[in-house]
Amino acid sequence: MKATIITIGDEILIGQIVDTNSAFIAKSLDRIGVEINEMISISDDKQHILDTFTKLQNTVDLVIITGGLGPTKDDVTKKTFCEYFEDELVVNQEVLAHVTQLIEGFYKRTITQINKDQALVPSRCTVLHNQVGTAPGMWMKKENTVFISLPGVPFEMKYLVDNEIIPKVVKEYERPYILHKTILTYGQGESMVAERIEEWEDNLPEFIKLAYLPSPGRVRLRLSGRGTDKAKLEAALDEKVKSLDAIIHDIIVGFEEDETLEVVVGRILKKQNKTIATAESCTGGKIAEVLTSVSGSSNYFKGSVVSYATEVKINVLGIPESLIEAHSVVSAEIVTAMALKVKEMMKTDYVIATTGNAGPTKGDSNAEIGAVFIALATPDGIIVEEFNFGQPREKVIDRATIKSLEMLQKEILKNV
User: Fold this and answer.
1) In the chain, N or C: fewer CB atoms in 10 Å?
2) Cβ–Cβ contacts within 10 Å for residue 375, how many?
3) Could you tell me which residue, 392 or 301, shows the higher pLDDT?
4) Pairing outcome for strands 301-306 and 276-280
């Protein structure tokens, strides 16, 4: 079973907003075995919508559209739906009652004609009732393709996908199983990982595909299996993951779908009942931001001192000015002092500290642009490493953040 996702709206095409709706819909459909054929963004123009519908007719089983269902004149999807299906708009009394209750009962204002028009739907459509908004979803079939129109407001779209579309698709269509296993690796680039697992990849069965998902410092390896026998599929994926682990065990840090390094280290810290803080300069609080993005991080993350300016290192962390003059702010000596001071201040088991020149200028140090020192204070001592992450600035900050978490992960795994 195949689907195409369409987002309608000029605001997407000019980059005013980012399309997150397609990603949510795609993940939701993938979980129930629906293959996404393509994602398209088009303008809120009647002819453009009609041409796109015609092009997709009978090429996929589902076409899911978001956007263009608002009450204003620039939202034309509903009328275009009618034209494509040679239908007419009629008032759906159940939708009208819901809209009236929402406007007059919840928002405490008089309902207007423009609000009432939200209850207009094609006469032959199956209405998908939107309990969290005023614009209903619409389900219509032409020949071999079902067209589903949803509001573009994310929380309304998500409600309809979860409560109307997924249950209806599951009930009415037979679908294959699509299962994924994601292996998270750190420390080696995509080409090096591919070289190490080349023979293993060449021997994958036809029903299992491998995708490389690289980002700075990390590569996610996603195995996707498709078939009608779920148990057989799960067993095959598990066997392939096990054999892969035997080849690149040294760089694998996680196996769960969408599991990031911050999730991995957070889980281990929580399990070990250990705590951490950060003392950041060149990373500007990025490491703290990443660590605290994980739900439940308050169980192990104590806090951070972002001593971006030299005077903050002196006045807040109490680092002697003479030490800075002797070694410069970008040095092993200063990053060590930062880590130890914050460890003392916050009474934590671990502290990550960073100092460096992220660029584009050198700032208060003559160290090379891209140079970064990272210190990890542990219950047993301190580890300091020096790197040069090159340019641009964003790359330096991201790689310093990732490398810091790698150092932490490597250390805390010694106690697992």
Assistant:
1) C
2) 25
3) 301
4) parallel
